[in-house]
Please model this.
Amino acid sequence: MSSKKIVANLKMNLSAKETKEYLEKIGTKIQNKNVIICPTNIFIPYFLGHGYEVGIQNISTEEKGSYTGEVSAMQARSIGVHYVILGHSERRKYALETDEDIGKKVVLGLTHGLHVILCIGETEEDRNEHHTEKVLQNQMLYALKNIEKKDISNITIAYEPTWSIGSGKIPKEVDIEEAVDFIKKIILHTYHTSIEVLYGGSVRKENIATLKQINNIDGFLIGEASTDPEKFLRIIEVAVIV
Ligand code: PGA
Model:
């Protein structure tokens, strides 16, 4: 079975002391560029220069200038960050990010040499009303509307049903497979090329072996379980050929 890509989204967790302990526990155990850790912005420098890649959890919609509290794509890239998570449902919900904002960030990220991890996903209501495909298609095509075929290899889609994030609830394996297949088909049809698709939402050390069996998944985006080094290392052990 092939090796998967693992993206750790540490979100707004861990203090400076906890971050230090986290890094000590991980040590030199992760020597694989298919593992991407996305810490809180201020801790990014501590994660650089080890055996894995580092990502940022968000970037500004603007190039540069008077935008207090923001970090630009260029700044992230200039310190050695190679990935950016965009369109995460928590940013859509709490920071009120629109598809248009996300589209702008995708362009800026790519322009400045960041690989974009674009999160899309339906709500529970969307799924119950059989709107999943429509929602996925809209979110994806809006965010990618200014993107050309040559950019697709620098984009990874993370399929994350919003109702699965942090809830312990996971769609049926067949439903994940179907959604991932749909995403890949839309990209193939639109850009005539293939794209990597990850699954995210309540991925744990207890379910990673089962989820890994789903044929068309290229990897996983992990929130909560990635904040505990032991759980995270176990997930990597199962999903990534180190
Ligand atoms: P979770 O988060 O693993 O805690 O469900 C996933 C995510 O937010 O991407």
The pocket of 2-phosphoglycolic acid is lined by residues 9, 160, 165-166, 200-203, 221-225 (CB under 6 Å). The chain has ten helices and eight strands.
